[in-house]
Amino acid sequence: MLIVCWSPVMVEVWNGPGDKKTVEGPSRMPAPIRLRELIRTIRTARTQAEEREMIQKECAAIRSSFREEDNTYRCRNVAKLLYMHMLGYPAHFGQLECLKLIASQKFTDKRIGYLGAMLLLDERQDVHLLMTNCIKNDLNHSTQYVQGLALCTLGCMGSSEMCRDLAGEVEKLLKTSNSYLRKKAALCAVHVIRKVPELMEMFLPATKNLLSEKNHGVLHTSVVLLTEMCERSPDMLAHFRKLVPQLVRILKNLIMSGYSPEHDVSGISDPFLQVRILRLLRILGKGDDDSSEAMNDILAQVATNTETSKNVGNAILYETVLTIMDIKSESGLRVLAINILGRFLLNNDKNIRYVALTSLLKTVQTDHNAVQRHRSTIVDCLKDLDVSIKRRAMELSFALVNGNNIRGMMKELLYFLDSCDPEFKADCASGVFLAAEKYAPSKRWHIDTIMRVLTTAGSYVRDDSVPNLIQLITNSVEMHAYTVQRLYKALLDDISQQPLVQVASWCIGEYGDLLVSGQCEEEEPIQDEVLDVLEGLLVSNLSTPVTRGYALTAIMKLSTRFTSVNRIKKVVSIYGSSIDVELQQRAVEYNALFKKYDHMSGDEWLRVTIDQLLSSVRILSCSYDPNSSVVSLNFHLTRRPLSVCQTFQLQLLSPSSNVVPTLNQGTVTQVIRVLNPQKQQLRMRIKLTYTHKGSAVQDLAEVNNFPPQSWQ
Amino acid sequence: MIKAILIFNNHGKPRLIRFYQYFAEDMQQQIIRETFHLVSKRDDNVCNFLEGGSLIGGSDYKLIYRHYATLYFVFCVDSSESELGILDLIQVFVETLDKCFENVCELDLIFHMDKVHYILQEVVMGGMVLETNMNEIVAQVEVQNRMEKSELCNQN
Question: Is A106 part of the contact surface with chain B (CB cutoff 8 Å)?
């Protein structure tokens, strides 16, 4: 916390005449070096360390010079400090010196002092408040350039307190006839309003005749001020709507005025002012019929008459388009605007293409059909070399996909997916899945599209896509054979893309019987080949632990679909001692299953799938008919909780059926809702009691591997 | 609003740094480094607009830049500024420098950092565009330079 008392004596010394000290003496330090010399010296440094050393040496010299309170060289020293500050070296010890310079009578001192204040100070330092008085004096200075410096500084870094103190001075200057000061006062007022919004009212009277100014600089900053006020206050917005005719007139004059050398930029009269006015018109016309009507003609005029060969013309056109799209313009005008954007898309200049795509993205929701007309141009932009343009074209393309154009668009987007940079692949893949889900013309097309994404960008597909895809495939019952065959083939080619491998493994596990049964169009693999592939996944370095889990589960499931059960048992038992804990646990549980039912022959073996079996059933009776090989189980639905303990509460819902079909033709699911407020680990013990061939059998199994996110 | 104006050379050495929003010193240097890193990667035939760069804060900001010989002129702006308009503004600024320094080159910016600031001050104030008429800007800068010169003469 820095508290400085400025005694009157000190002020006199600085503001009085003859503040030049003539001090030369053998005990005095040599004059501080000029900024130029310092820069030259620093440029000779060959390493960062050398530079640092030079800077430190100079800083020490500057500090000593400051201590001597030498007015002559203060500005030179501060200039050097600002240079060093730009290079990244600390310069805070110069803050007070800036204030002293500001208080000086010399313009040179004030100029560098104010610059230093703007670069080194901000409202977080208490020191800045000391400037308030100086600025106040300088706002009333006899020299306009000093007034200008004060306005500039206040408008850049004035704190709320300073703004409150000095708002009156700014308001006064806003009404002056001096255009140099008036334009600066306008921007300073914007800053004051941002810092202290309650003061906005105070500037209202001064805005009355701002727009009748001839000076373009004043006009420009006035429009900025009006824009700020309208954006901040709906009342102001309503109040300033009456300015629309005046703004339209000014714009008209600019377009129609012919060549004016003063304001000409590449053949257009003050394009910056035109853009500013167009933006203000946008704000005034938005949501207001009358204002929109009043500006309709001029917008059409600007849209059709503006010369487009140079960037300035395009900047105006672009702003016009944005305004047309935002206000309540008639449909003809809107179509005109979108067509301008369409032309922009064909422009050689990349910047123009970029802004066109950005604008189209904003309007595609509201003017969908109009934008659709430019679809082919947009799709062409997917092939652009520029990354920013490609990204926008991709987003826009997805926005334009609908039921009518899905086939064509998907072709282009898949081609894009093949060839685009990795940074796009994840987003593009997600977009393709979404679009396919919404508009797929047929299930087969849908599966084919998914396959295409998985095989070309499989490693970039998001993790959450895998369960979604599995769900999708499950629901497309008639496509199971086709899907599993295609996925199997894809696995033969490439096992590096994990999402593809995971989905494929799951499908093979679930529909492996369809794969080998000859239901597919092509030559079907034999069981051993399929198991080879799945085992290959288990041992491959390319497979992640999650993938291995999928592969092992798939192999397990095939034990109920394939006949080579011994081979499967062998594989599973090997993984009972796997280093991967997850894999080991699964293998051990699967092994246990095998052991339990080992004494049964194939025919009699009760096939219960333990794919996340959540069932709390008490089997009341079980009968087995050897002639038809049907095992029927009767369930008793229990509403009582399995075990009443304090940490959990359970609610059992009805099972999906009370008959478990044989030959794995279906499963029975029962949902249990668990209330686990203490977030204890979930475990479940299943007890099966049934009679088999007249004798009672009881079986226990435990489920310990509930995923942590289910109970944490 | 213009949040920052950065001029640096092809090696990332800063030639003019002006922030219109408060950032701590080390943050300023980080922003300069990050901006240089983003901009120098760009080919010369891509567009002049860049998104990304997380340090200046928020998603509502773009980098608009122009590459002249050995210097990058980068304006960091938010959505209230027209992208194409800012490109034109950079052009105006550079042409103004050219008029003030007579065929401006990097060395002029290096040795007259303070003068470049004074010129910029007549173009952009508080992060907003102040004046775009080149002749006006040059005239105002020259009057002030003359005032400085005459003070220097009187002193001696």
Answer: yes
CB contact under 8 A, A106 and B49: no
| DSSP annotation of A680 | P
Closest-CA residue of chain A to B142: A145
Name the residue among A200, A178, A285, A206 with its Cα closest to residue A241. A285
Count CB pairs under 8 A between chains A and B: 149
Cα separation, A338 vs A356, whole angstroms: 9
A 145-174 → B contacts, CB under 8 A: 145, 152, 155-156
CB spacing of B144 vs A315 below 8 angstroms = no
Distance of CA B51 to the CA centre of its chain: 18
- Angstrom distances, CA of residue B65 to CA of A180, A316, B41, B127: 29, 19, 13, 16
Residue A641: the pLDDT is 33
- The confidence score (pLDDT) of residue A605 equals 39
* Rounded Cα–Cα distance for residues A589 and A556 (Å): 11
Comparing CB atoms, the residue among B25, B47, B85 nearest residue A354 is B47
**Biggest distance spanned by C-alpha atoms of chain A:** 124
Is B140's CB within 8 Å of A180's CB? yes
Q: Which of A107, A275, A352 sits opposite B147 (nearest CB)?
A: A107
pLDDT, tens digit, 9 for 90 and up, residues B82-131 = 899 999 999 999 999 999 998 899 999 999 999 999 999 999 999 999 99
- Looking at residue A521, its pLDDT comes to 61
Write down the pLDDT at residue B23. 87
Q: Rounded CA gap, B32 and A600, in Å?
A: 75
Alpha carbon distances (Å) from A347 to A57, A339, A371, A446: 55, 13, 17, 36
Distance CA B9, CA B31 (A): 15
pLDDT at A633: 52
Q: What sections of A68-178 are H helices per DSSP?
A: 74-86, 95-103, 107-120, 131-139, 144-157, 160-174
Would you tell me how many other CB atoms lie within 10 Å of the CB of residue B132? 24
> In chain A, which residues have pLDDT < 50?
1-27, 601-622, 635-646
A183 touching B (Cβ < 8 Å): yes
Integer CA distances (angstroms), A170 to A132, A490, A541, B2, in order: 13, 73, 72, 22
| Residue A648: HSE in the Cβ half-sphere, 13 Å Cα cutoff | 17
What is the rounded CA–CA span in Å between residue A46 and residue A35?
20
List, for residues A434-480, the tens digit of each pLDDT value.
999 899 898 889 888 988 898 888 788 887 788 888 888 888 888 88
